[in-house]
Every structure is written in structure tokens, then in C-alpha cells.
Amino acid sequence: MRVIALIGPMGCGKSTIAEAMAAKLGWQVLSIDQETAEGGGWLSLIAKVRKLEAPAIVESVLLPPHYRAALYEHDTTIVKVECGERERRRRLKKRGETMKPPIVQRTLGHMKFDSTSLTPERIDRLVEMARTPSQRMLSYGRR
Questions:
Q1: CATH code, domain carrying 80
Q2: What is the model's pTM?
Q3: Cα–Cα distance between 21 and 79 in angstroms, integer?
Q4: Is the pLDDT at 93 greater than 60, yes or no?
């Protein structure tokens, strides 16, 4: 089973990307924010991933190493989603939130995705990568 994990700071576009990819691929989106709101957390999210029989997209601000190992039980690609501070601040202000310092994490992603200019074509590129599990990109920067 395929799992795409989108990791990055608040306001960088993880949820937007996850929903767009899910719509194109027909995959389920699992969000650590939603799990936490429902009284769960990483343990309940990992349990859901293990029960799935279909591919999924997981999105979170961070991915603790011990949970990363659980995701690697599946064919998992970790995508570090990044964008400029000015764009993050604009996006958060638009939804009525304030910018918090990003959590510093040394997550080794299979690829990086700069979401500063988030276009349908760039999301299509991620969708194509999701369909090709053996393809790993080290960087997918601005265009």
C-alpha cells in the first residue's frame, strides 16, 4: 500500500495539497490535526494507516522518528512541503491565524516541494510521483 506523508510548517499548504492530490488519485487523507481534535494522536493515526487497504495521504506539521518507522512498513514517500515566510504569513492571516515559529525537525524527506507558487500543474506533478512509487526525487523546487 502507498502512503504519501506531507510534512511542513503551518500555512505551507499541506492540507490544500493533500485534498487536491486525494481528489485526483481517489486516495484518503489522514490528518494528525483531525486525529488530535478527535482525541487521538499519532498512535490512532498509525493504527488507521495499518488498517487501510488502499493508498493514503498523511499530513502533519512533524513526523516523530518512531512514527516514521511505522509508516515505513508501507511504501511511504515523505514530502517536505516548504514555502517562504512572507507567503506563510499571508496564508495564515487570510484564515485568521498567527504565524508561529516553525518546528525545527530533521526529517529526511524523499523530496522537497516548495509551495510558494501552488499551481494545479505543480500538484499534478506530485500526483504523477505518487503514482510511481519507485521514483524518488531529492528536490522539486520553484518553477
A1: 3.40.50.300
A2: 0.76
A3: 13
A4: yes
Residue 137 has pLDDT above 50, yes or no: no
Check pLDDT > 80 for residue 84: yes
Query: H/E element holding 3?
Result: strand 2-7
Phi, psi dihedrals of residue 112, rounded to the nearest 5°: -115, 145
What pLDDT does 109 receive? 62
The owner of cell 508501507 is: 74
What is the spatial distance between Cα 60 and Cα 78, in angstroms, rounded to a whole number?
11
Split into its structural domains, the chain has a count of: 1
Which conformational region is residue 116 in: left (phi greater than 0), alpha (psi within -120 to 50 degrees), or beta? Answer: alpha
Strands, E, within 8-98: which ranges? 28-31, 56-60, 75-82
